[in-house]
């Protein structure tokens, strides 16, 4: 009875399945779906594909049927399948984080019904059809891949589950051997009642006194009780960050060089033109755009910092895509400013604000974070005075900005308070020599301390 191969698709599947049915002459039997596809199922699953009339005489030719491979095509018949969408070239799976709807809820076309958390972003699973959620076939916490079924959407007006007469018959009819099982259970219970108490027949054995636990000395630490600890699963984005940072540490020969920047002129530039800048461009003038333009100037003068090692080759990139590290409630994300060398101050500020907002809202896309040739991280917004940032693969260097602190500095022979910032450059010493790293950081310092250099291309 078991076929030697998986049934082919389409009408041949229906012929193959009908071989296992004994159908009466006046039976009203039709297929709910025109095609059947690949997924293992049982008899009950198979019956769901049949539309059986109330007066139909349909029975199975044998007690057992082979485990055919079938499932309804997406959007075939009354049910539509909501599946996990494509998540990006570098993402193979994700975690089903939460359901936005529940069974019985009515949904519109392309309305989100669940969210999948990936290594980088959160992706919505949407309904392919307007209708009612029949049921969810996955649960929160499951690892899913693109194409994984999440839910069935009923395109009819009713959310009730339809049961075919054959399924109802299977549920109502007692299974063979049920009476014999009940009878055997009754006999065992009677035998147990007739037996004497086991405790009266077994002599009590002498108890072995266990040695007392050694007393802890006053110098030994007392561990906190377990009820004061919490163990929670690590979010996928945190797992991804941990993996990438450890890979970076294991791969690169990282070294960090430092310098300090007098922020007086850049802060004065912002103070003098902030109102006019907002009036013309509709966005605030910040300090980050000055550092982005300074980094672009440094990368153009020292293209080795914009390059990367690939095996035994060096890839020189003739474009500048600067990644901006953004801290979000879910973890660190790094959106990218594409072709930063072609952006003016206003474009940089607008793009940074837009990307940072979307990152915090969790709506940023994979494409907006892919790539990047150089990274800028501003720990100063959190109060960091000095740090050694870790390279963001597959890049070769990262610039760290820090807090602005008023410190006494010698200016033209006089000691004056100046707003100072420490800057750090972590670089791959396999590719970038110390001389080039110091020159690059010096270029950042020169441009930030005198922004007029950008106008004169100096």
Automatic annotation (TrEMBL):
Q: Where is the composition biased (Basic and acidic residues)?
A: 157-207
Q: Which GO terms describe its biological process?
A: L-lysine catabolic process to acetyl-CoA via saccharopine; tricarboxylic acid cycle
Give one GO term, molecular function aspect.
dihydrolipoyllysine-residue succinyltransferase activity
Q: Does the keyword Chaperone apply?
A: no
Q: Which GO terms describe its cellular component?
A: mitochondrion; oxoglutarate dehydrogenase complex
The source's superkingdom equals: Eukaryota
Q: Which InterPro entries match?
A: 2-oxoA_DH_lipoyl-BS, 2-oxoacid_dehydrogenase, 2-oxoacid_DH_actylTfrase, Biotin_lipoyl, CAT-like_dom_sf, Single_hybrid_motif, SucB
Annotated Lipoyl-binding domain ranges read 79-154
The catalysed reaction is: N(6)-[(R)-dihydrolipoyl]-L-lysyl-[protein] + succinyl-CoA = N(6)-[(R)-S(8)-succinyldihydrolipoyl]-L-lysyl-[protein] + CoA
Q: Where is this region: Disordered?
A: 155-229
Tell me the enzyme class: transferase
Where in or outside the cell? Mitochondrion
Please state which protein family the record places this protein in: Belongs to the 2-oxoacid dehydrogenase family.
User: Can you state the subunit structure given in the record?
Assistant: Forms a 24-polypeptide structural core with octahedral symmetry.
Q: What is the recorded function of this protein according to its Swiss-Prot or TrEMBL entry?
A: The 2-oxoglutarate dehydrogenase complex catalyzes the overall conversion of 2-oxoglutarate to succinyl-CoA and CO(2). It contains multiple copies of three enzymatic components: 2-oxoglutarate dehydrogenase (E1), dihydrolipoamide succinyltransferase (E2) and lipoamide dehydrogenase (E3).
Q: What is this protein called?
A: dihydrolipoyllysine-residue succinyltransferase
């Amino acid at each position: 009875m078991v076929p030697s191969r998986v049934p082919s698709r389409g009408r041949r599947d229906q012929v193959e399945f009908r071989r296992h049915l004994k159908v009466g002459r006046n039976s009203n039997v039709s297929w709910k779906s025109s095609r059947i596809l690949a997924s293992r199922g049982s008899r009950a699953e198979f019956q769901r594909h049949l539309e059986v009339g109330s007066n139909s005489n349909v029975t199975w030719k044998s007690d057992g049927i082979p485990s055919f491979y079938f499932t309804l095509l997406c959007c075939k018949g009354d049910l539509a399948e909501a599946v996990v969408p494509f998540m990006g070239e570098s993402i193979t799976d994700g975690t089903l984080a939460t359901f936005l709807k529940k069974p019985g809820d009515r949904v519109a076309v392309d309305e989100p019904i669940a969210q999948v958390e990936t290594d980088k972003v959160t992706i919505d699973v949407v309904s392919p059809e307007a209708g009612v959620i029949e049921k969810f076939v996955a649960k929160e916490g499951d690892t899913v891949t693109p194409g994984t079924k999440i839910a069935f959407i009923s395109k009819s007006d009713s959310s009730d589950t339809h049961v075919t007469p054959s399924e109802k018959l299977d549920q109502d009819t007692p299974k063979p051997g049920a009476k014999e099982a009940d009878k055997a259970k009754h006999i065992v219970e009677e035998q147990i009642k007739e037996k004497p108490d086991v405790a009266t027949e077994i002599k009590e054995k002498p108890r072995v006194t266990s040695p007392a636990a050694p007393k802890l000395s006053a110098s030994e630490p007392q561990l906190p009780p377990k009820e004061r600890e919490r163990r929670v699963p690590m979010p996928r984005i945190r797992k991804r960050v941990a993996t990438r940072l450890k890979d970076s540490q294991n791969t690169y020969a990282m070294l960090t060089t430092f310098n300090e920047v007098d922020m007086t002129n850049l802060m004065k530039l912002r103070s003098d033109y902030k109102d006019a800048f907002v009036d013309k461009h509709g966005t605030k003038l910040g300090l980050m755009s000055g550092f982005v333009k300074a980094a672009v100037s440094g990368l153009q003068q020292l293209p080795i910092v914009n390059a990367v090692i690939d095996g035994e080759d060096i890839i020189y990139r003739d474009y500048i895509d600067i990644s901006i590290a953004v801290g979000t409630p879910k973890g660190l994300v790094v959106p990218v400013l594409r072709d930063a060398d072609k952006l003016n101050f206003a474009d940089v500020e607008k793009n940074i604000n837009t990307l940072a907002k979307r990152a915090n809202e969790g709506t940023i896309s994979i494409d907006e974070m892919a790539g990047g040739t150089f990274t800028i991280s501003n720990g100063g917004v959190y109060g960091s005075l000095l740090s050694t940032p870790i390279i963001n693969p597959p890049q070769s260097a990262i610039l760290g900005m820090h807090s602005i602190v008023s410190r006494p500095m010698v200016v033209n022979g006089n000691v004056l308070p100046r707003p100072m910032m420490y800057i750090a450059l972590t670089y791959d010493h396999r590719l970038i020599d110390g001389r080039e790293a110091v020159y690059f950081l010096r270029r950042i310092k020169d441009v930030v301390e005198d922004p007029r250099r950008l106008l004169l291309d100096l």
